[in-house]
Amino acid sequence: MSLFDQVLALGDDALVAAQRMSEWCARAPQLEEDVALANIALDLLGQARELLSYAGTLEGAGRDEDALAYRRDANEFRNAQLVELPNGDFATSIAKMFCFAAYQNLLYQALVDAPDATLAQIAAKAVKETKYHVDHAALWTLRLGDGTAESHRRMQAGLDEVWPFTHELFESVALAPGVTASSLRAPWLAVVEPVLREATFRRPVDGWAPTGGRQGVHTEAFSYLVMELQVVHRAFPDGRW
Amino acid sequence: MTESPDWPLWEVFVRARRGVAHTHAGSLHAPDAAMALHNARDLYTRRSEGVSIWVVPTANIAASSPDEKDSLFDPAADKAYRHPTFFQLPEGVEHL
Question: Residue B82 contacts by C-beta under 8 Å, 6 or more apart in sequence?
Fold first, then answer.
């Protein structure tokens, strides 16, 4: 993959995760959590903007962040399938956020020391943001695990649902200069497994590992997400107000 | 948005910068102290308002009653000698 493809994939991960997370806005189980999830979505959107802007510069074809976000079809997106999965219930969303934020945090940590100066700069800010996302999701994981029988059941179901899609994050491709995705899995497990254990969840077994997002193969729900993401831009191309 | 009657109320105090006191910022609901801190960070410092947060269970705050206003506060009203306004300032003293 060229550097453009790599940065595009990182940006698409953040953009699609932000879009999914923002679906919780005004729907979270509780007002304070609503604001927390909206903040996290905004952090992710900020990362997406910087990464996509940089990708546009690398490509050198005159596409800016808006062109990349709003003028590509679903099969041109390079995000991992994990971030496009429908939110499901709150527990499933927490399971997804925990898995993804822990991955992103490790990735950005690695990028801080990566040879690409622009990526290092973007990552330096994102490390702090994703650290908070991991903490927030871990707090909820512990509470849902220790909460009621129903909260435990739902979160376990959420973990079982999203776990197969985490494998794609660690496929053996160069994610960015100096960072191999597969090298992040052991540290990722070292973050995730202790929290699951403390929260009394069963760590899902590794088996089915759907893949293809990095090549533009996406799940059924993704077209709807892209449609909603782009609807205003498609109705009013380059509109300003 | 559903009611959360089982989640207690917390009062949030935020210190805007080093050297100034924590001031009351507002209140929120949270199941425990750790979540209250997280929620306070998101609700009251998202525009860079603070460098430190305290959260206190509202139930643990003892407040004076408005009914006691006269007996608590009025007696101080006519005791002007408690204010340091009767001293001659020496020449050249600016910050007193």
Answer: B76
Q: Range with the lowest mean pLDDT among A17-21, A71-75, A230-234, B16-20? A: B16-20
What pTM was estimated for this model as a whole? Answer: 0.88
Q: Which residues does residue B56 pair with via DSSP β-bridges, in sequence order?
A: B11
**Residue B26 to residue B11: CA distance in whole angstroms:** 6
With tokens 């909820």, the residue in question is: A140
CA distances (Å), B6 to each of A149, A151, A183, A199, in order? Answer: 17, 16, 44, 21
Q: What pLDDT digit, counting tens, does each position of A146-184 carry?
A: 999 999 999 999 999 999 999 999 997 777 888 889 999
Q: Count of residues for chain A?
A: 241
Cross-chain Cβ contact B28/A36 below 8 Å: no
* Chain A residues close to B43, C-beta within 8 Å: 32, 35
A89 touches chain B (CB under 8 A): no
Q: Where are the beta strands (DSSP E) in A64-181?
A: 174-176, 179-180
Q: Is A136 on the interface with B (CB under 8 A)?
A: yes
